[in-house]
Amino acid sequence: MRAPMRRLGDVIPLPASVRPDEAATFTVTADTAVHADPAASGVAELLAGLLREASGHPIPLSANGSIKLLLDGGTGADDGKNPEGYALVIEADGVTLRAPSAQGLFNGVQTIRQLIPLGTGGDVPLPGGRIEDEPRFAYRGTMLDLARHFFTPEQVRDYIDAIVQFKINHLHLHLTDDQGWRLVIDSWPRLTEVSGGEGTGVDGAGPGFLTANDYTDLVAYAAERFVTIVPEIDMPGHVNAAQVAYPELTADGQAPEPRTDTKVGYSSLVASSEKTYEFVEDVLRELAALTPGPYLHIGGDEAFATPPEDYRTFMTRVLPLVGKYGKRAIGWHEMATVDLPPTAIPQYWRIEPSNEEVARAAAAGHQVIMSPADRTYLDMKYEKYDESSPLGLDWAGLVGIQRSYDWDPAERLPGVGEESVLGVESALWSETLRSLDDVCFMTFPRLAAIAEVAWTPRAARDWEPFSRRLGAFGPRWSAQGITFYQDPEIDWES
Ligand code: ACM
Questions:
Q1: Structure pTM?
Q2: Which atom of ligand 1 lies nearest, measured to the CA of 302?
Q3: Active site residue 493
Q4: pLDDT tens-place string over residues 167-181
């Protein structure tokens, strides 16, 4: 059994331009093959695999395949083309996907994937027409908190597979916090020996850590799917787990008690201690060496136990260390209270209607990542969902799907307009989560809404048609075994 043919525009995020040709249908048959420029063979194999799974046909890669993946030679830098853009033409006798880069082709393949009607076995019809597409914002991210609850590399890989379908291209991993430290640092081994194992995480229920090999493998898995891993070491606050492992990082040299509660703002590195900078530099050096992507996230939020003068001292010493190891610093927006190196990126996360420091950074030419909690925090409970559910928090209010959709990143903060917005990131803090099902339940469908906010031109976005497109994803998520919140307001196709 196969679901009816999809319409060309039934895609999330909505492409920039969709021109259906209802007279044309391409049908994937037992004779269909995929041709690709050699540099795009990995992406072609991904597409062929999807078509094999849907049809049961062999779908080989072949020089005369009727589905063509073509790199049109540009790099995106010199010809003005967005490297992430693509053009897809579906005609009766063939499909042509063109892009300036393999990443653009990968994005086009995600679009084709959504055009495959659900069902397995037999020929697959694809709707005719032309899509021309490119993202509004270059950075489209989501964050997963491995510190409050650890998720295994296999779970993170499954999560990557789920998020790339919406053209999310950055995965920010929150690796350290008061309740746990989740990445082995060779020069400070007790971080994970003491604070990564049994009994760590909120309620002691989220033990585990990544070895350097685990992390490197995850980074490579993400890169094959054009996802950049953004690792975060949160400091100068949120460091109780580090101080339990290394008491010399406290003011009095005494180890604090391990913490498994959800309070924030009580721990701090010591800004006046050289030991602090020895520790931070070792960690950043090792992390930079393991991380091919351009960013290291240094946290900087909720440092309520760090006096403001100490916070300035600390950030002023630490920010240049990120540059020293060849990376760009991202930090939660509190970081913008200090004078930032030109490449540093504040990430706005609060719910207030304005923020002077972020506006000042934007005026000075900094790019900003927008993560307002009342729109993008995936750990907030859903509107209309049973509020007694143990999943999620509500300090930023209840966040329904429409709330995640109906806002604009370039209008959210006065002084932070389109040219200052590098992109949008949602965040999933894991205090209340215990499984990948919990993670997916809180993520979907809201990440689909946020992905469209970050990708689709503002003028093309509209809640009603989005909610109809979203309805078609219910059975698609179910078929993939992805748990999601079945919001009663959405007409979920069955
Ligand atoms: C944050 O939610 N503390 C960045």
A1: 0.98
A2: 3
A3: no
A4: 999 999 999 999 999
